[in-house]
């Protein structure tokens, strides 16, 4: 199984990042949306736990600017416990539909409570209730038990706004390294990397 990477008229150059990494990321994101790539804000998040064991999982990007990439989770989840032990992470946006990806890695900090509250207010009510119902990453006996937990919180907050759970919030990955990848013919792919603090764009061999 081998995909041909050709037909893309855009050819990534280091100078395309002269204005910084965010404008090009947004341009590629918009192209992924236009190409109807599934969940274009999905990203693969990598962490390392206190035993040095790496783990990856797919999460949704819920904020991105020059300060970094933001996602939200339960602070008792596996990923949160790994970040408590090793507050560094990497994410990759795998835009396979347009033969492109972007990789960001760096130190991780929690976002401010007011930023979490602003995002929480935008979440669908069902997602808010689901966050209350789940002790994320903890064992559960059955799907029926999860359904019961959801029904309990649904009844608890009936007719009122659902507050932010005390153990739920956001993380921001500060961009220490940002790399843009574009699939090209014969596997001679384009790779351009920026590294803090000056973020000078450097072309890498594929």
TrEMBL record:
Pfam families, A to Z: PNP_phzG_C, PNPOx_N
Catalytic activity: pyridoxine 5'-phosphate + O2 = pyridoxal 5'-phosphate + H2O2; pyridoxamine 5'-phosphate + O2 + H2O = pyridoxal 5'-phosphate + H2O2 + NH4(+)
Assigned keywords, A-Z: Flavoprotein, FMN, Oxidoreductase, Pyridoxine biosynthesis
Entry keyword annotation includes Flavoprotein: yes
Pathways involved: Cofactor metabolism; pyridoxal 5'-phosphate salvage; pyridoxal 5'-phosphate from pyridoxine 5'-phosphate: step 1/1; Cofactor metabolism; pyridoxal 5'-phosphate salvage; pyridoxal 5'-phosphate from pyridoxamine 5'-phosphate: step 1/1
Assigned EC number: 1.4.3.5
Free-text cofactor note: Binds 1 FMN per subunit.
PANTHER family recorded: PYRIDOXINE-5'-PHOSPHATE OXIDASE, PYRIDOXINE-5-PHOSPHATE OXIDASE
Name assigned to this protein: Pyridoxine/pyridoxamine 5'-phosphate oxidase
Species whose genome carries this gene: Tsukamurella pseudospumae
Lineage: Bacteria, Bacillati, Actinomycetota, Actinomycetes, Mycobacteriales
């Amino acid at each position: 199984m081998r995909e041909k990477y050709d037909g893309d008229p855009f050819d990534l150059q280091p100078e395309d990042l002269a204005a910084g990494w965010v404008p090009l990321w947004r341009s590629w994101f918009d192209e992924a949306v236009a190409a109807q790539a599934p969940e274009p804000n999905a990203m693969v998040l990598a962490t390392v736990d206190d035993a040095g064991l790496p783990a990856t999982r797919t999460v949704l990007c819920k904020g991105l600017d020059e300060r970094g990439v933001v996602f939200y989770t339960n602070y008792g989840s596996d990923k949160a416990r790994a970040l408590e032990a090793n507050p560094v992470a990497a994410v990759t946006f795998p835009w396979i539909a347009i033969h492109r990806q972007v990789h960001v890695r760096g130190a991780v900090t929690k976002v401010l409570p007011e930023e979490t509250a602003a995002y929480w207010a935008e979440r669908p009510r069902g997602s808010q209730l689901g966050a209350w119902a789940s002790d994320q990453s903890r064992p559960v006996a059955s799907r029926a038990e999860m359904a019961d937990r959801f029904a309990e919180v649904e009844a608890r907050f009936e007719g009122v706004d659902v507050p932010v759970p005390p153990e739920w919030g956001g993380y921001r990955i500060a961009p220490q390294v940002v790399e843009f990848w574009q699939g090209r013919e014969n596997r001679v792919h384009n790779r351009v990397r920026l590294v803090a603090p000056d973020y000078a764009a450097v072309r890498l061999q594929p």
